[in-house]
Amino acid sequence: MPYYIDSTLVDVLSQHALDRPKAKAFSFLGRDETETEARSFAELDQRARAIASRLSYEGLSGKLVLLLLTDSAAFIDALMGCFYAGVIPVPAVVPRANRPTATIEAIARDAGVVGVLTGRRELTYLKPALSEALPNAGWYCLEDVDGDPSAWPGRQISTHDLAFLQYTSGSTGAPKGVMVTHGNLMANEAAIQRAMGLSSETIFVSWLPLFHDMGLIGSVLQPLYLGVPCVLMPTVAFLQRPLRWLKAIDAYGGTISGAPNFAYDLCVDRIPPEQRAELDLSSWTVAFNGSEPVRAATIERFSEAFAVAGFKRKSFYPCYGMAETTLLAAGVEAAAEPEALSVDRAALGRGSARAAADDTEAVHLVSCGRAAGDAQIVIVDPDAHIRLPACTVGEIWISGDSVAAGYYQKPAASDAAFGARLASTADGPFLRTGDLGFLSAEGQLFITGRLKDVIIVRGHKHYPQDLEATAARSNRLLAAGRCAAFALDEAQGTIAIVQELTGEGWHHAVVDRVAGDVREAIARDHGLTVAHVALIKPGSLPRTSSGKVRRSTCRRMLEAGAFATWSQRSSAKATAAAAPEELRGLL
Questions:
Q1: Distance (Å, rounded) from C-alpha 156 to C-alpha 557?
Q2: Which of 224, 356, 408, 537 could make a disulfide contact with 564, Cβ separation 3.0–4.6 Å?
Q3: Residue 480 burial (10 A CB sphere; 0-12, 13-18, 19+)
């Protein structure tokens, strides 16, 4: 398949509309699992031209516009309309009516948007809510933004032009606007195609949010790049009933679909054996997982649970990436069995990935494969900026055509993150990811955690996700993957665990017993004393839009007494003080 050298997605869609005008590009499913909308390549091209014609007439070309549209055909119409017009969209989650808008206000102010493109229903409550934050912005209702497709001026888009701002998930700090160029997009889409072995026979199925990089670039722009069909459903449809995701893969013969760890775990927990047996997942050959890190237990649980449906373990595709690398930075070999290493926990805490002598002292790490496309990945001492040898933990640095242009209107932060160079050779520039990991002797990338999240006790490093996994396994009334571990007092080395209860646990837990199980498990497996265990209401753990735990937010909320804990479950005041939905994230 062509890689569209020196082209943009505007060129790609225009060509698909000529070559396969009636072929279905996108299908949208409602909560009842029936198709509610669809777009052929010609229809999408015509709609994009009409929107671009109007946006150009309004003088918005080259300017930033906030994109507040739900996961629907309208979102893709608007995105491509912006690309055609040379408007720079800023996709963001759409707050529901009467919900906090602080995140949207912060993004809008940071980007300095001159307009907002939204739907008619959302306009009625968003415009009043955001009027103070956006006093001079123009508001454009997508249903009314309809120009003459033939009047589109055919603006020349360069690969160096800014395509959109992708706001970071903010798992360790305030979100920042990543400047993604059209060239970044094309380079990353080509890397995804090659790394995952995708072809003209590929069929996408996704429920991932369209405003987020994994949903937008991986599950909308990649099928558009390939010219293949994509079936989309609302995120909430999956969250309410995970079976819908797998039924859609079955019904449409989906070959590629994916999500973070929690989604696979949710399917195992909520889909009973009799329903699994009714599914046919044999077509699913690429089940990508871009969590940081991918959990070996998730791969094993899901593979075992859905083997009866024809799912193959080798379909799992662990990968690694972030907004700053457009999306994909590393991935495994397609159709290969996922590789895992059992490394010694104590040695890992000292920065060495040494094989564990026995399972009781082991941490199981999953390989994310090798650098994708033209990317170069090096492991670097974060303080000395020297390259580290194989099997030594350090910060992950990346260079290549997929690395974005920097953070919007933040030159100092951009230079610090995107302008790193090796001290010994001055090679670079590299992107400093803030992630920790190592390369095996064979060149495989393994993720160990986030630099800012590492807990240091008596000079020994502990990775919070290891503590979190141990805590969640300690009692069946604790929700898997819904935990945050962090240091309360770094000087004294005190540890806190914030852990969601299951629905059953929220009503029936003996809190002292469950908290005791957590403390005992952490002490036994990690040699640490937990100073505080907060057992919180289901669904209240702050997470980013991609499912990452906001550990710094958890620490602030715990110190402020803002969580609804088990002991406060009858208090309406405590429940109201729980994390607002924007902080929890959609996933």
A1: 49
A2: 537
A3: buried
Q: Could you tell me if 317 and 286 are in contact, meaning their C-beta atoms sit under 8 angstroms apart?
A: yes
- The 10s digit of each residue's pLDDT in 549-585 is 888 888 888 888 888 776 654 433 333 333 333 333 3
Residues sharing a CB contact under 8 Å with residue 301, sequence separation 6 or more, in sequence order: 264, 265, 268
Q: Are 218 and 258 in contact (CB under 8 A)?
A: yes
> Which residues contact residue 540 at a Cβ distance below 8 angstroms, ignoring those fewer than 6 apart?
500, 563, 564, 578, 579, 584
Provide CB contacts within 8 A for 572, sequence distance 6+.
none
CA distance 213 to 211: 7
Tokens representing 587 are 């996933």
> What does pTM read for this prediction?
0.86
Token pair belonging to 415:
């230079």
pLDDT of residue 534: 92
Question: pLDDT tens for residues 468-527?
Answer: 889 999 999 998 888 999 988 766 667 899 999 998 989 888 888 999 999 999 988 888
Distance CA 124, CA 37 (A): 23
Q: In one letter, which amino acid is 66?
A: L
* Longest CA–CA separation in the chain, Å: 70
Q: Residue type at 437?
A: G
60-118 residue pLDDT tens: 999 999 999 998 999 999 999 999 999 999 999 898 888 888 888 989 989 999 999 99
Task: Decide: helix, strand or coil at residue 331.
Answer: strand
Write out the two tokens for 479.
Answer: 């929700």
Other C-beta atoms closer than 10 Å to the C-beta of 306 total 24
Write out the two tokens for 129. 């809510």
> What is the dihedral sign for C-alpha 538, 244, 307, 226?
negative
Q: Which domains does the chain have, with CATH numbers?
A: 9-235 (3.40.50.12780), 343-451 (2.30.38.10), 455-584 (3.30.300.30)
Q: Residue holding tokens 């057992």?
A: 535
The candidate with the shortest Cα–Cα distance to 294, out of 332, 345, 256, is 332
Counting Cα atoms < 13 Å in the Cβ hemisphere of 324 gives 22
